[in-house]
């Protein structure tokens, strides 16, 4: 038995060391080729999806960070504004 790998590192096992399989029918060879092509396509799709997940994770982290900065900025503006100061519970206690 010999084994070899194609360009995408999928191990394949073959009974014939030459890589030609005379003992299987052309239909079986065609089916095997079709399945290999399908596996390679699925492997590429998985790789693309993995890259997309990584980029979405990075974007998510950036947006969370931006939201934190904006939230702090809004909080600072609200604390500096007299409009929001007059509604806070601390300013209502001035007369006490």
From TrEMBL:
Protein name as annotated: Short coiled-coil protein A
Provide the topology term for how it sits in the membrane.
Peripheral membrane protein
Nucleus found in the keyword field: no
Family membership noted in the UniProt record: Belongs to the SCOC family.
Q: Could you name the domain of life of the organism this protein comes from?
A: Eukaryota
Q: What is its main location?
A: cytoplasm
Is Translocase tagged as a keyword? no
Offer a single GO CC term for the protein. Answer: Golgi membrane
**What is the annotated localization of this protein?**
Cytoplasm, Cytosol; Golgi apparatus membrane; Golgi apparatus, trans-Golgi network
Q: Where is this region: Disordered?
A: 1-31
Tell me which InterPro entries the record gives.
SCOC
What task does this protein carry out? Answer: Positive regulator of amino acid starvation-induced autophagy.
Q: Where is the composition biased (Acidic residues)?
A: 13-30
Keyword field: Coiled coil, Cytoplasm, Golgi apparatus, Membrane
Q: Which residues form a coiled coil?
A: 32-66
